[in-house]
Model the fold of this input.
Amino acid sequence: MITQPNDEDVQNLLDRNFDVDESMSVLVSDLTYVRVGKQWNYVCFLLDLSK
Done:
């Protein structure tokens, strides 16, 4: 399986301001897929940037 990349620019909403006090107010994520046996499985990670 070959996928095409998304070349669109993404707006930088955080502007590298990772100093967040309120829990669950800023979440970042990443999505990938891994092969397990003969199947592809999606894995999504969520990270809360609060202290």
Notes: The longest strand covers residues 27-36. The beta strands are 27-36, 39-48.
